[in-house]
Amino acid sequence: MIKMVTNINIKKELPKNPIVIEAFPSKGFVSTIAAKYMIDELDMEVIGHLKSSRIQSIAVIHDSTPMYPIRIYAKDNLILIFSEVNVPFHHVGEFSGALSRWFREIRPKEVILLAGIAGRSTDKEHEIFSVTTDPELKKKLKELKVEEIDEGMLTGISSDLLLDCIENEIPVVALMAETQYTPDPLGSASMLGILNNLLNLNIDTRRLVEKGEEIERMFHDISEQLRKGIDDTKKIAEYSPMYG
Question: Which domains, and CATH codes, for the chain?
């Protein structure tokens, strides 16, 4: 019987006590889009990958180069775990366990988990919410006017990593972008804005905002057409004997 394993393979020396960002796919793909934009803007380098027999037979191609779907990037003291595939729910524990063991080895200065959540009733579109128990991170996020979630539920790899980091006394925060669309570049831009201020990244998000506004207009137009179609159908139903 073949043993199923999930391993983290690092090819280069890691910075000491790095800041680690986790970006697995989430609602609206806000974490994935934000991470990809960050990789491009900061010219981050691939330094490793996560290899698992749970996600066999998947290779992604970028610039004619085959790559693992879950890669680890680095730039200065920043490490980014970037995934282009969803982890099957029943294997989440195995993946988060591998990452948690790795965190205990490298002892990050802090861990930032990125996710998207369904639109909440707020006055602000694409608002960023946070969850952390670390006093220093709480203070920083309060200064940035990031709203803290009082009640709710976080699922998937982010939830496991959040609890494991707390248990192992690694400063950790989950940042969640309010999102309504898939994909949602504006939600990603909002998240990058917080990361800019939190980590002094100086990433220019203008291209992402422009693309996001274009996509939102498209979704709005489609929604309006669908609504008009429903309204017209109701009118036809009222006046046409064909609709009995």
Answer: 6-205 (3.40.50.10900)
pTM of the complete model:
0.85
> Measured between alpha carbons, how far is 11 from 126 in angstroms, rounded to an integer?
37
Q: What is the SS3 assignment for 243?
A: helix
Contact between 101 and 165 (Cβ < 8 Å): no
Contact 114, 131 (CB under 8 A): no
Nearest residue to 81 (alpha-carbon basis) of 142, 131, 36, 21: 21
Q: What is the pLDDT along the chain (244 residues), one digit of tens a residue?
A: 445 688 999 999 898 999 999 999 988 889 999 999 999 999 999 999 999 888 777 888 888 999 999 999 999 999 999 999 888 888 899 999 999 999 999 999 999 999 988 866 556 778 999 999 999 999 999 999 999 988 878 888 999 999 999 999 999 999 999 887 778 888 999 999 999 999 999 999 999 888 878 877 776 676 666 666 544 444 434 433 333 3
